[in-house]
Amino acid sequence: MPELPEVEALSGFLAEHLAGRHIARVQPVAVSVLKTYDPPLTALEGAEVTAVGRHGKFLDITVADELHLVIHLARAGWLQWKDTLPAAPPRPGKGPLALRVRLAEPEGAGFDLTEAGTQKRLAVYCVRDPRDVPGVARLGPDPLAAAFTPEAFAALLADERRQIKGVLRDQSTIAGIGNAYSDEILHVAKLSPYKLAANLTDEETAVLYAAIGDTLRGAVERSRGVAAGRLKAEKKSGLRVHGRAGEKCPVCGDTIREVSFSDSALQYCPTCQTGGKPLADRRMSRLLK
C-alpha cells in the first residue's frame, strides 16, 4: 500500500508532469472507482492542472484552481505514468485498469490508475473542496507538518488506551502512516507494537516522535525524484523489518518475527523491541481455541 512517503513522491512527480498542462480526457474504466458524480469528470476536460498536492495518503490534483481530482490508491492501487498512452479508448473488463487521464499536451501522454486483486478499493473523487471527500475530512494531523510538534504528539497519546501500532495506523489520529512504516517507526523507537499508547513514558514518547519524523523524512528523501514506476521497489529496498520475517535484524542480528494484527500482519525484532520475548499471535490463538 502506498503510504505518506510514496504519495509525497507521486505528488512531486505529477507536479512536474502535469502542472500547467491541460486535461484532454478522463476515462473511468472500472465501475467501482468513481465515488462522486457532481461535478462530473467531464468538467475537468479542457481545463489546466494548476497544482498537485497530498492529504495523508490521498493525492490531490487541482484543476483550474476550482476542482479537485482526489485519488486514494488503497491497498493494491497504483499510478502508472505513460509518455504515450494507447490511442484506442480503454474498454471495461476484468483487467487491472481502473481510470485513464489523457493530457492535451504533450499529445498522448498521461497516466493510468490500476488495481490488482479482486477487492476493489481504489477510489477517485471529483470535488470542489478536498474536504468533501469523507476520508480527507477525517484525517488527523500530518506528521511532517510544522504544527506536528512534540507537545501536540504527546497530547494525542495522553488518553489513548489502544496499542501503539493501531494508533500509528489510525488515519484520524495521524495522517499518512500505514502498516509498513508503523513497523519501521516502532523498530527505530525500540517499542513493542502491543504497548498501550497511554502507558508510554515521557522519554518513550519523545523517542517515538523522533522516530516518526526521521523514518518518514528519510523515506521521502529516498523517493524524491524517483520515477512513479520505481517507487514500489524503492520503498521495499528501504524497509528494515516490514516484509522481512525470517531475515536477520540489521541492528542486532536477531530473527525478525511476524504476527497477525487487525486485518494484516506486522513484523518486529524481539531483541530490539520486546526484551527478547516473541509476541503472541492473538488472532491465531483465538482460532485455535
Note down, in words, how this protein is organized.
Residues 240-274 form the FPG-type domain. Its cofactor is Zn(2+). Helix 1 runs parallel beside helix 6 and helix 3 (150-157) crosses helix 6. This protein has a four-stranded antiparallel sheet with strand order 1-6-7-5, with no helix packed on it. It has nine helices and ten strands. It has two domains: 4-137, N-terminal domain of MutM-like DNA repair proteins (Alpha-Beta Barrel), CATH 3.20.190.10; 150-288, Helicase, Ruva Protein, domain 3, CATH 1.10.8. The longest helix has 22 residues, at 202-223. Strand 6 (97-103) and strand 7 form a beta hairpin. The chain is elongated, with a radius of gyration of 20 Å. The protein is 29% helix and 20% strand. It has helices at residues 4-18, 134-137, 150-157, 164-169, 179-189, 202-223, 231-238, 270-273, 282-288; strands spanning 23-28, 49-55, 58-63, 67-72, 77-82, 97-103, 110-115, 123-127, 257-261, 264-268. The chain has 289 residues and is α+β, with helices and mostly antiparallel strands.
Query: What is the beta-strand fraction?
Result: 15-25%
Tally of separate helices: 9
Number of domains: 2
Residue share in helix: 25-40%
Q: What's the total number of strands?
A: 10
**N-to-C CA distance:** 32 Å
InterPro entries: FPG_cat (IPR012319), FPG_N (IPR035937), H2TH_FPG (IPR015886), Ribosomal_uS13-like_H2TH (IPR010979), Znf_DNA_glyclase/AP_lyase (IPR000214), Znf_FPG/IleRS (IPR010663)
Organism: Streptomyces synnematoformans
Protein name: Fpg/Nei family DNA glycosylase
Cofactor: Zn(2+)
